[in-house]
Every structure is written in structure tokens, then in C-alpha cells.
Amino acid sequence: MTPDDMDDPDLAVAGPLMSAIANQPATGIQLFRGARATPAAVAAMQRGSVVTLPLSSFASSSRIGIDFAHDPTQGGLNPGAKQRIPDDATIPVLYILGRGARAGNIAHDVGEFVTTGDFRIAAQVAVWGDGTHVVFLRQITPIEGTT
After folding, report:
1. Alpha-carbon distance 96 to 88, whole Å?
2. Which residues of 56-89 are buried (b: 16+ CB within 10 A; e: fewer)?
3. Is the pLDDT of residue 5 over 50?
4. 25 within some domain
5. For residue 91, which of 40, 67, 100, 135 sits 20 to 30 Å off, Cα-Cα?
6. For the ranges 6-15, 51-60, 62-71, 130-139, which has the lowest average pLDDT?
7. Domain total for the chain?
């Protein structure tokens, strides 16, 4: 981030937020993120491959992750989600982030965490009967902190 970026309100907030996340202690719990993926993206989800996530929200509740995987708009409460999801992203995916990731708890009442960085797919263990693909992630290059 350069001084010129500080004129962009999104970047002005993102820098301090990302630094705060990076300086969090490693999580002691698993975190869950529900998403929709295209068939090509799911086919690329192989053990050992690396996924880079922008600033992304995870939940401490697997139920919340599962719900978002099946309905990203959450019954219309998150209408902008539909605009960001490609039409061919039809496969529900539940990402399970292993303990030890750098993530900031931004909503203590619902256990919402945010993180970013590179993540290795540790395993794609199962496809549940409802079609949900379950993918285990390990954070390998968390964002850098400014202690």
C-alpha cells in the first residue's frame, strides 16, 4: 500500500484491518466457510494444491458455513452475494480451515472471523449426499503483520 492508496476509502480501512488480523494469535479452533464453486474450480481442488483467498469471512459454526454453501444470499438477507457468484457456480463447498490460522474475530456474538492468504488443500475428504464438497485447508502464508 502506498500513501496514494490512502485516498481510496476501501484501502484506507483494509490496511489496518489486515495488519490487525496478521497480529492475531493463531486460532485454536477450526473455522468454516460456505461458498459456491464452478465444476472446473471443484475439479482443480486437489490435495496439495494452493488456493489464494482475498479477505474472506469464516464462521466458528459449521452450520453457518453449510448454510452459506447452499444459499449464499441467506434467504435474501445478503442480496449482493448473488451478483458476485458466477451463474455456473452451482456446487456447494464447505471449506474447513484447520487450527493455527491467523484470523481476526470481527463478530464475537456469531463467531465471525476474517482472514486472507495462501491455503493448501490438505484433503477433499467427502462429497456429502446433498452434493456438498468438503475441503480441508491449512493456511501456509498468512498475511504479514506489523508488530
Report:
1. 23
2. bbbbbeeebbbbbbebbeeeeeeeebeeeeeeeb
3. no
4. yes
5. 100
6. 6-15
7. 1
